[in-house]
Amino acid sequence: MKIPFEELKAEFLRVLLKQNFEPQKAEQCAAIFAENSRDGVYTHGLNRFPTFVDYIKQGLIDSYAQPTLEKTFGLIEQWNGNLAPGMLNARFCTERAVALAKEHGMGCVAIRNTNHWMRGGTYGWQAAEAGCIGIHFTNTIALVPPWGGIDPRLGNNPLVIAVPRAEGHIVLDMAMSQYSMGKLMQYQGNNEELPLPGGYDEAGELSTDPGAIIRSKRLLPVGFWKGSGLALMLDLLVTILSQGKSTARITESTVESGVGQVFICIKDPDKETTSRLTEQILEFTKTSRPDTEGGIIAYPGENTLRTRIRNLKEGIPVREDIWNKVRAM
Q: Which of 79, 31, 88, 34 is nearest to 56 (CA)?
């Protein structure tokens, strides 16, 4: 089943207005959810929307709240998100980081007491569109066991790195597990096996069964112990820079709310030189021989652009059960 972009966005907007969102905020949130599905990140588009609405009803998200500045020193600002919608806080923080970068060459904005930002790549694209390099990361509820452990004690702590490029921005958006929890749930909902092992089953064996991994709560860190270490360091950086909750404190409440995030933007020092060096790196990377006949070597964000063009032309694939659930709201 496929839905036109504008119809998807309009449905999100209708539901949010019904939840007493201010019209401007409802429009911004609806656009972000629709754009996430448009770009192929269905786990943080339509699929995540019912959870977002449920969090509003539970009072975990305050649609009327605004972020407030708590401290500023040099190129760094600390903000309190006041449990406002996470994507609006993240968009605002990216704007602030860009403004600081344009003034000082670099800017760092840390926010505590905010909510899930949905697709982290959204704010990488935003920074790149403003002509800045973007480095953003967040902490989350515990979803990944530390290397050598069984129980989840690390957040999936997505990391976003974006580099502006006239021919198509380069945007890496990655979780700290081989597959994010949302991606596991997507495979499970579609009754599909994972292409590669994504965690352990309840017997402690590597598995491609998304349901078994979700039940065991043993997601596989990217790079094994390296991903485990990186997840820990990102939690440290977010917690220290924002002076907010760590993954340990977020996990105590059993629902993911009150997280912290960091947004770093760097002004491009020389666009002409940067463009030349960027193309040099991409061109060399693409000279690798594909491992399958007809295969292509893609840079981070390249497949996103292809998916965006296809979905705008052909319509956005949706799970019919979730689409009907949203329409019934």
A: 88
The correct answer on CATH 3.40.50.12370 for the domain covering 1-58+308-329 is: no
Let me know how long the chain is: 329
* pLDDT tens readout for residues 183-193: 898 899 889 99
pLDDT, tens digit (0-9, with 9 covering 90-100), for 233-272: 999 999 999 999 999 999 998 889 999 999 999 999 899 9
Structure tokens at 257: 């709310």
- Sequence-distant (≥ 6) Cβ neighbours of residue 84 within 8 angstroms: 61, 62, 63, 65, 66, 67, 114, 115
Candidate CATH numbers 3.40.50.300, 3.30.1370.60, 3.10.129.10, 1.10.340.30; the one for domain 65-177+221-298: 3.30.1370.60
Catalytic machinery residues? 44
Torsion (CA) 179, 180, 185, 187 in degrees, nearest 10: -30
